[in-house]
Amino acid sequence: MWKRDESVRPTVGREPVQPTAPGGAAAHGLETDLRRPGDVRDVVNIGKSVVIKGELNGSEDLTVEGYVDGTIELKDHVLTIGPHGRIKAEIFAKAVVVLGKVNGNVTASEKVDIRDNGSVEGNIVAPRVAIAEGAHFRGSVDMQRKPEAVKPPEAPKAETKPVAQAPNGSKP
Amino acid sequence: MSGVGKVTGFLSRLTRKAPPPARAAVAGPERVEADPAPEPVVSTKALRKFVGALRQCPSPTLLDLGPVLGPNIQYFGEQLGCKVIVEDVFESLDRFEEEGRPSDLPAFLETRFPQPAESVDGILCWNLFDFLDRPSADVVAAHVMRLLKPNGVLFGMFATDRGAEARFTKFVVVDDDAFRHREYSRPRARRAAMQNRDIGHLFGELRVSDLFLLQTRVREVLFRKPGYRLNK
Questions:
Q1: Is the ipTM of this complex over 0.90?
Q2: Nearest by CB to A140, which of B74, B83, B88?
């Protein structure tokens, strides 16, 4: 009598995705899909066959099993690099969990966790860093709490007042 | 008499204390899970002085030439506030040995350290120089001397004899006075036991500030780079 409309029911075992790749991001072979536009889930999966080149922004947790080349920015959310994930990007997130390979700098406002067989080549800035036995890491770890360090660099805007800068162009 | 001896021996076995548990690792939520294999905890004399020198720096930068270890990152990064740079030379040494081209290692090491000169306050060499051949040791030593800031400190360990059963060892910092030894990789014979004068020649630009001969027949040596630190 009150049978559910099966046409809008999401497939069991597959997570819906919110592809948020502005700035010319090109996704090839996106194997996830949007089942229900109004249904916002907390975790987004990017599958093994997905290749993203460009800037990846989001406001929900993200798991990457594919390849990303560019920038990943999840300010208040968790980024998980799955065992098959290959990242060649600057990463900004609340927390980053690495089970795959990352080549690039990682900045997290809370924690970076490199699990067994995870690999990071780059500089890490985070107040907490966990590196498991068997993980590969080459680079630097800066755990000092610098609030400004977790924000990604922003392009200067015309309407904002110019901020005094050091002669070499670095941020004050 | 023999009966009394048997009773005494039996009682002594009953009252024998169990071996003390291993010392707790560095406190922290990200503690590495305990390895089932027993890991000896060995005291250190030089680490406390090394740490003391780092504590005098406002935002110390530390270069670790050994394998990355979570507890050490927490100890130096979180507790001491160091920026820790990891350049695992052991991994390079192992890889070149496996690939059968150890003679290419010195040339590779020439490009291994991209950091600018005088950018590091402290360097952890561990027992790396026990395993490097002389050309590779010269290259690493030259980089070490270049990277150290004036008054920067270098911590190294040098065996007093060739160990037939030597293995790469991960030194997990327990506290200022102890390491937990964690063996890994395949057995690898030490190249040579360097004499004190050889060590001095190797790091010609540095001066030995402290040298400790431990009961484990290992010399712990602290070097300092002469000079004056400018207060920034």
A1: no
A2: B83
Q: Which of residues 115-134 of A touch B (CB under 8 A)?
A: 128-133
Q: What is the count of structural domains for chain B?
A: 1
Rounded CA separation B173/B31 (Å): 12
In a domain, B88, yes or no: yes
Instruction: Report chain B residues whose CB lies below 8 A from the CB of A131.
Output: 68-70, 73
pLDDT for A33-69, tens place per residue? 434 444 455 678 898 999 999 999 989 999 999 999 9
The reply to whether A19 falls in a domain is yes
The chain B residues in contact with chain A (CB within 8 A) are 29-30, 32-33, 35, 59, 68-70, 73-74, 77-78, 81, 83-88
Does the beta-carbon distance from B88 to A144 stay under 8 Å?
no
Q: Cβ(B77)–Cβ(B212) under 8 Å?
A: no
Q: Buried (b) or exposed (e) across A123-136, using 16+ Cβ within 10 A?
A: bbbbbbbbbbbebb
- Expressed as residue numbers, the domain containing A130 is 14-150
Express each pLDDT in A100-139 by its tens digit.
999 999 999 999 999 999 999 999 999 999 999 889 999 9
**Are A129 and B68 an interchain contact pair (Cβ–Cβ within 8 Å)?**
no
Confidence of residue A166 (pLDDT cuts 50, 70, 90): very low
Q: Render pLDDT for B52-74 as a digit per residue (tens, 0 to 9).
A: 999 999 899 999 999 999 999 99
| Domain harbouring B197, CATH code | 3.40.50.150
Does the residue A165 lie in any domain?
A: no
Quickly list H helices, B31-163: 46-55, 70-73, 89-98, 105-110, 134-147
Inter-chain touch A129–B30, beta carbons under 8 Å: yes
Chain B residue whose CA is closest to A136: B68
Residue B219 lies in a domain: yes
Q: What's residue B140's pLDDT?
A: 96
Residue A98 lies in a domain: yes
Record: contact A130-B30, CB cut-off 8 A = yes
Distance CA B91, CA B97 (A): 10
Provide the residue range defining the domain that includes B125.
57-224
What span, in angstroms and rounded, lies between the C-alpha atoms of B141 and A162?
46
Task: Dump pLDDT digits (tens) for B8-66.
Answer: 444 444 433 334 444 444 444 444 444 456 788 989 999 999 999 999 998 999 999 99
Is A37 inside a domain boundary? yes
Q: What is the DSSP letter of B202?
A: H
